[in-house]
C-alpha cells in the first residue's frame, strides 16, 4: 500500500504518529519534529515565511486516519507475506479434498468494470496461469464463471473452493446482475489508458456493489493494462490512489497480458477474505446451510422414491386385480 502524501511529515517525509497543525500556516507536522524546528527557527517549515505565532493543535481527524491506515497496512503486509506460500489451482476441489472429514469453504469473487478493461483476460490468466493473447477480445454477455481451489487445507480442516464471476461490463445492464454482487471479494478493474473507466467505478460499479452486495466484503482496485503505459504522474494513478484509500480497497497495478501482479493480487485477496472474521464466520455458517439443504434434498428424494415405489405397487396390484377379476368373470 502506498502511503498518502498527507500522512507524511513535510520535515522528515516520514509517516506521522502525532500530527499537529501549525496554526499560522495551516499545515500538519509530526509534533516532536515541529517542536525541534521551532526551537531553532522562526519560520514555517513549508513556506519559509516568518511566524508571528508558533502555536499548534493536534490534528485529531488526521491522527485517526493515519491509525486506520496503519492497521490496513499491517493487514496487507501480513496477507502479502502469506500469499507467497499460497498456491491457487484451476478447477474444482480435487477428490482428496472432497472427503467428508473436510468442511468446504465456498468463496465467491466478482470482477466488475467497463467493457474492454481486461476483466476476461484477468480471468483467463487465473484459469490458465499463462500469458494471454493481445489480439483476442471477447465481449462478455452473461456471467462467466471459473472454478479455482486452494492447493492446501485452511486451518488443517477446511477445503477452500473459489468461484470467480466475470460480470458483463455494459452499465445499462449492471442492475440486471445485482444478485451476483453478493460476493466475498470484489475485483474492480479500470483501464489506465481510459480515465472514464475509473470514473465509472467510482460513480457506478462501486455504488452498485455497496447497494446490492454483502455488508462486509474484501475489495481490490486494479489499474490494469500497465503494459501500455505506467507513468505514476498520470492523474488516473493519483485518482486511483485517492479512491482506494478512501474506500478501504487494496490497489494494484496489473497487466493481464503479461500477468504482472495478477496472481499476487488474487492470492492476497483470497487471504484477506479468509482473514476477515465476519466473512470467515459467514463462510462457516454456509457450510451448515449447505449441509441442511443437501439433507432436505436427500430426504425429499427418499420420500419421492417411496411414493413412486408405492404407486408402482398399487398400479401392479390394480392390474393384477383387474386381470384376476376378468378371469373369474370369464370362467
From TrEMBL:
Pfam hit, one: Ras
A molecular function GO annotation: GTPase activity
CDD domains documented for this protein: RING-Ubox_WDSUB1-like
Keyword Transmembrane: no
Domain U-box as annotated: residue spans: 2-76
Biological processes per GO annotation: protein ubiquitination
InterPro entries: P-loop_NTPase, Small_GTPase, Ubox_domain, Znf_RING/FYVE/PHD
UniProt keywords, alphabetically: Nucleotide-binding
Superkingdom of this protein's organism: Eukaryota
PANTHER family for this protein: PTHR47978
Family: Belongs to the small GTPase superfamily. Rab family.
Protein's recorded name: U-box domain-containing protein
Lineage: Eukaryota, Metazoa, Spiralia, Gnathifera, Rotifera
Amino acid at each position: 500500500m502506498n502511503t498518502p502524501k498527507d500522512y507524511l511529515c513535510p520535515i522528515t517525509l516520514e509517516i506521522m504518529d502525532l500530527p499537529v497543525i501549525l496554526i499560522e500556516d495551516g499545515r500538519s507536522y509530526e509534533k516532536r519534529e515541529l517542536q525541534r524546528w521551532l526551537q531553532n527557527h522562526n519560520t514555517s517549515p513549508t513556506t519559509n515565511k516568518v511566524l508571528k505565532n508558533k502555536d499548534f493543535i493536534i490534528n485529531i481527524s488526521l491522527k485517526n486516519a493515519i491509525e486506520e491506515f496503519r492497521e490496513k497496512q499491517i493487514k496487507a503486509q501480513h496477507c502479502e507475506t502469506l500469499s507467497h506460500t499460497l498456491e491457487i489451482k484451476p478447477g474444482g476441489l480435487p477428490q482428496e479434498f472432497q472427503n467428508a472429514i473436510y468442511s468446504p469453504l465456498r468463496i465467491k469473487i466478482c470482477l466488475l468494470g467497463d467493457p474492454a478493461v481486461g476483466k476476461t483476460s484477468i480471468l483467463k490468466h487465473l484459469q490458465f496461469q499463462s500469458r494471454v493473447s493481445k489480439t483476442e477480445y471477447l465481449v462478455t454477455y452473461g456471467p462467466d464463471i471459473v472454478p479455482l481451489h486452494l492447493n492446501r487445507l485452511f486451518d488443517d480442516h477446511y477445503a477452500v473452493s473459489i468461484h470467480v464471476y466475470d460480470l458483463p461490463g455494459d452499465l445499462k445492464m449492471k442492475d440486471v446482475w445485482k444478485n451476483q454482487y453478493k460476493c466475498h471479494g470484489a475485483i474492480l478493474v479500470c483501464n489506465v489508458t481510459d480515465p472514464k473507466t475509473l470514473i465509472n467505478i467510482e460513480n457506478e460499479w462501486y455504488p452498485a456493489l455497496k447497494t446490492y452486495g454483502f455488508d462486509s466484503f474484501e475489495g481490490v482496485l486494479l489499474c490494469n493494462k500497465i503494459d501500455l503505459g505506467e507513468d505514476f504522474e498520470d492523474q488516473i494513478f493519483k485518482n486511483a490512489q485517492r479512491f482506494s484509500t478512501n474506500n478501504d480497497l487494496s490497489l494494484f497495478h496489473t497487466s493481464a497480458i503479461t500477468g504482472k501482479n495478477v496472481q499476487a493480487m488474487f492470492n492476497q485477496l483470497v487471504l484477506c477474505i479468509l482473514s476477515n472474521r465476519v466473512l470467515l464466520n459467514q463462510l462457516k455458517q454456509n457450510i451448515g446451510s449447505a449441509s441442511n439443504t443437501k439433507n432436505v434434498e436427500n430426504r425429499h428424494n427418499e420420500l419421492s422414491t417411496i411414493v413412486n415405489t408405492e404407486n408402482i405397487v398399487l398400479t401392479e396390484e390394480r392390474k393384477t386385480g383387474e386381470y384376476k377379476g376378468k378371469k373369474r368373470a370369464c370362467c
